[in-house]
UniProtKB/TrEMBL annotation:
GO molecular function annotation: DNA binding; sigma factor activity
Pfam families per UniProt: Sigma70_r2 (PF04542), Sigma70_r4_2 (PF08281)
InterPro entries the UniProt entry points to: RNA_pol_sigma-70-like, RNA_pol_sigma-70_dom, RNA_pol_sigma70_r2, RNA_pol_sigma70_r4_t2, RNA_pol_sigma_r2, RNA_pol_sigma_r3/r4-like, WH-like_DNA-bd_sf
Entry keyword annotation includes DNA-binding: yes
Protein name (record): RNA polymerase sigma-70 factor (ECF subfamily)
All residue ranges annotated as the RNA polymerase sigma factor 70 region 4 type domain in the record: 103-153
Length: 160
């Protein structure tokens, strides 16, 4: 066990820096680094010595990080599905409060790119990723633009 303590103390900072470089997030880097050493401890008997221990640890860290990202992406997809449901509920309540004509009138008075992003999302049923691609922007840009468009539209409708 003292050998693994030495490995931990010798390589923790280096593995952490490596994970930080690929994650760009201190909390994630710390979590992944801890998980890396936990996995390494469980599998130390499988280390065959064909590479340096630092390389082996970084490989574990990289695989752990990519597994983490896959899980995170899955949760984002679930959140997006929930957002679609919430958005459709908001849109349904808007339809019950206002006439369709007034909503479309306010929608068309929105500036670009808000109007187009909102229409692609609601009427075109496109994902944020697809919208971002259409504008040659990121998925995050599409999310933020859609949210702002929705808030502007809601504000205009509530003012009437």
């Amino acid at each position: 066990m003292t050998d693994f303590n030495e490995i931990y103390h010798l390589y923790f900072k280096d593995v952490y820096k490596y994970v930080l470089s690929i994650s760009r997030d201190e909390m994630i880097a710390e979590e992944i680094t801890q998980e890396t050493f936990f996995k390494a401890l469980k599998n130390i008997d499988k280390f065959d010595g064909k590479c340096k221990i630092y390389v082996w640890l970084c490989q574990i860290a990289k695989n752990t990080f990519f597994t983490y990202r896959k899980k995170e992406k899955y949760h984002e997809d679930l959140t997006e599905a929930e957002d679609i449901h919430v958005d459709s509920t908001i849109e349904q309540s808007l339809l019950s409060k206002e006439s369709v004509f007034n909503i479309h009138k306010e929608l068309h008075s929105l500036g670009e790119p808000y109007k187009e992003v909102f229409m692609l999302r609601v009427f075109g049923d496109l994902s944020f990723s697809q919208i971002g691609s259409l504008f040659e922007r990121t998925e995050s840009w599409a999310r933020v633009t859609y949210h702002r468009a929705k808030m502007k539209l809601k504000e205009k409708i509530e003012c009437e």
